[in-house]
Structures are given as structure tokens and as C-alpha cells.
Amino acid sequence: MSTKATVEKLVSLCKRRGLVFQSSEIYGGIGGFWDYGPLGVELKNNIKQAWWKAVVQERDDVVGQDASIIMNPTVWRASGHLDTFADPMVDCKECKKRFRADELVGAAPAGTHGHEAAAKVARCPECGGELTEPRMFNLMFRTYVGPVEDDASTAYLRPETAQGIFVNFANILATTRKKLPFGIAQIGKAFRNEITPGNFIFRDREFEQMEIEYFVKPGTDEQWHQHWVEERHNWYLRLGMRKENVRVRRLEPEEQAHYAKDTYEVEYLFPMGWSELEGIANRTDFDLRRHAEFSGRDLEYFDEESGEHIVPYVIEPSAGVDRLLMAFLVDAYDEEEVRNETRVILRLHKELAPVKVAVLPLSRNEKLVPSAREVWTLVRKHWMSQYDDAQSIGRRYRRQDEVGTPLCVTVDFDTLEDQAVTIRERDTMEQVRVPIAGLVDALRERLETA
Ligand code: ATP
Hints:
Blueprint: H1 7-16, E1 20-22, E2 34-36, H2 38-57, E3 62-64, H3 74-79, H4 81-84, E4 86-91, E5 98-100, H5 114-120, E6 135-138, E7 142-144, E8 154-156, H6 162-166, H7 169-176, E9 182-191, E10 206-216, H8 221-238, E11 246-250, E12 262-270, E13 273-284, H9 286-295, E14 301-303, E15 308-310, E16 313-320, H10 321-332, E17 333-338, E18 341-346, E19 357-361, H11 369-380, E20 385-387, H12 393-402, E21 407-411, H13 413-418, E22 420-425, E23 431-435, H14 439-448
Parallel strand pairs: 3-9, 19-20, 19-21
Antiparallel strand pairs: 1-2, 4-5, 4-6, 7-8, 9-10, 10-16, 11-12, 12-13, 13-16, 14-15, 17-18, 21-22, 22-23
């Protein structure tokens, strides 16, 4: 984590610069829901694209898909979500605040663990009041399909994208003729009625997931698990996250989901401490077996080598886009003193930066405007860019630094004479003069080399 980033500073920067807003803010907001503004949506898209490129485009063993959010409710019976996707909830009898009992475990007596510890936390951490007994609360949002609201029409907003992949396993196998090992990747919204959403966009009730279900022959699962742990860890480092802020942790047996044989987490040092960015679980053959059982369909794979029908094991790297976006912001956030002023700067990786190039005429002088607009026309065909002519040039550089724009191009009065412009780099603040004729190449060299 950047020692300078706090959740408050991030929330304020995100609001001020149009990255993230509270959902329905004019009505007082709604807990656990957030909106992404003009720069936020660019950053989010860039994260998703970088992921897709690494796990689908650059691999020959993973294909993509996009399943619907609402599925046949039997999916959730088969997956176990209807029975087990629940958190223990306690209420304070005094102040009426609600907590996830397992999150209060830190306050439990020494020597107690998990739900046992949760049950022992007798007092409210806010006011010291007495707490109710823990009750299990299912996190799935419920809705109705069609005009009649009854049990038969009850459906659920998916709490994870993974099940949309399992139910398409046979379709994708038949249409792509993939051989094991192979994976299916998907990015999409997921919904969880979290008891205690919070820490900005870290824990939301509506969020986006990027998940891969990687199907392997049983017996090779442990080796492929290691492969994905390394791949995913390196992806964060390649996108500029500081090594000391990212770690891989193997979960203890009592921390595992009921279906998992083994799970690792990629964790990030957020301002509130080390927390999960991504889970990488060995889900065994649990899901395919359950869906075969509940649907009556054959979800086996015919292995030509051995002549046997097998149910593949699954390695699942599962990451949350919103949580990653927050981590990338925390990691990139920096403040430095420049000429007795604090420069706030987002040192985002070039691939992630919402705006790659800002075109800035030195002033609004009418002689400069046509050249500056021409330069912008040249640049915007290639990269997401902005044209900004409001306030002093120094102020405009600061504004671009604050949202992580790697390069600014300044058009000044000399441009009218020498047909050249100045490129200014975000991190070093170095400036170089380049002819307009060579500008696109000069920008490309700076933006697209590693
Ligand atoms: P946590 O323990 O933080 O509740 P989890 O173990 O339930 O997370 P998974 O079910 O493994 O999470 O989901 C995979 C990923 O989806 C997480 O690593 C996280 O990045 C993201 N994610 C899960 N729940 C949320 C949420 N409520 N808000 C934002 N992202 C989430």
C-alpha cells in the first residue's frame, strides 16, 4: 500500500475526479452500491481488458463466454447456494446495529475460533450492548420472473458468475472441441446481500467478477493449481503493483469452502490491512457432478487417450473487478512536494490509466486553438484522450497527474512556427519536444513499450 493513501483520501479523489460516485446519491445513496463516472468506467474497462488479454487472448487453452445473470433456480440448489450461501448475523439489542458474527471474531476470547468464537462475542463493538444469537442469513437477492409472485416464479440474482460457466460446460465442449486441460473465462455482475458492505468499493452488494473455470484431468489438479496461483500473482506485478503489497496465502483447512480441496488467496495490503483480492480454489469435480445429478445431463468428458469417461476437476481463479480497482488506486496513489506544493499523483500502469494522453493548448488564445484541435484529432484516433484548456498549464498538469494520465502534449506559440509540440511525462515531469509529424510514433513508443 502507498503509505499516503487512506480510504478517505481515495473516496474524496474518486468523487472529485469522476471515478466513483455513491449510487443514487441525490436520494441519500444506498448501502453497498456504487456508480462509476467517466474516468472510473475507463479504468474499470482497462482492468477487465488487461485480464481478458492475459487469460483468453494470449492463451490457446481458455475461451470466453457471457451467461445471463438470472438462471433457472435449480442451478442454485445444485450449487449448494440455496442451502449454504449464508453468513451468521447478529444484531445489537441496544443500538440495533447489525454485524457479521464471523467478522467480530477478533473480539472473541482467546483460544476460540470460527463460529464458536463468533458465538462467544457477547457485546456490540460499537456501544457495548448485548448481541442477539447468530442467525444464518442467505446472501442471495431474490426476485420473481413473470407477472406472478409465488414460489414457482422465484429466481435469484447470481451471487457468482462461476455457475453460468458450469452449466455451459457441455455446450462449450461440443462447440469448441477443446481437449483437457482447458478453461472458460467470464466477466460479469454478481450480487450479494452482504450484511456489512463497506470499505468503499471493497465489499459491495453489486459488483463485477472475473472468473475462470479451468478443467483438468483428476490427478493433474494440484500442478495446475500451482500454475494458476503463479500466473495470477504475476499478473498483478506485471500491472505495476508493488511487490511488497501483494502476497499469496494458502487458506487453513477450516477457512476453505465446503467444496474446495485447497485454496489460495492473492491478498493486497489495503489501508485496513491484508485482504483478499482473488481466490484461487481447487473445486474438484463437485460442481460438474452436482449439475449432472440435478439436470440429469451427461457432463462427462471422453478422454481419447485412456478411452475413459471422466469428470474433470476444476481450478477456479476468481477476482472482483471493483476490489481490484480499489487496490490499483491505493497502490498508485502518491503525494510529493514540488515547489512547495503537494502534487497528488496516481502512478497507474499505462495500460490501466483511464486517459492516456491529454492535449493542452498553452492558453485559450485563438491562434493556438486550431493547431491544438488538430493535434487532438491526430491523437484521439489511437488512445483515450482529453482536451483541456481551462486554467493555467500548471494546474492542468496537476489535474492530469491526479488521475494518472501518463502523457500530456502541450501546444504553444512555438508550435505555430516549428510544427512541434512538447510531451511531458507524468512520473518524471520530463519534457521533450517532438515534431507533430512524428507525434503518434513518439507517443506509441512511450505508451506501448513495457
Ligand atoms: P470475502 O471473504 O471477502 O467475503 P469471498 O471469499 O466470499 O470474499 P469469493 O466468493 O471467493 O469471495 O469471490 C471471489 C472474489 O470476488 C473475491 O476475491 C472478491 O475479489 C470478489 N468479491 C466477493 N464478494 C465481493 C463483494 N461483496 N464486493 C466486492 N467484491 C467481492
